[in-house]
Amino acid sequence: MPIYILLSTLTSEGRKTLKERPERIKEVNKEIEAFGAKVLQQYSVLGRYDFVNVVEAPDNQAITRVSIELGSRGTISIMSMPATPIDEFLAVIKK
Description:
Mean pLDDT: 95
Oligomer: single chain
Number of helices: 4
CATH superfamily: Lrp/AsnC effector binding domain/regulation of amino acid metabolism (RAM) domain
Order of helices and strands: EHHEEHEH
Strand content: 25-35%
Number of domains: 1
Largest sheet: 4 strands, antiparallel
CATH architecture: 2-Layer Sandwich
Helix content: 40-55%
CATH topology: Alpha-Beta Plaits
């Protein structure tokens, strides 16, 4: 299944929600699964983004739905990027 990298930034409302209910992060991961995707790895990071998620999804449409559904709540902004395993990348450039 394709892999995607999601770079997330919390809004002020998102920071408030996270402070009041830190377990909300795990609840959102379950919601992502309901959209047909699965969080494989998740990191809190410093800098421009607050979280980096490595997500598996069947296709671009599924990951688009995840980004739109979660982003429409006003608590997070997400940049979604498809990821290519390095061996597949090498095979493509060797053609």
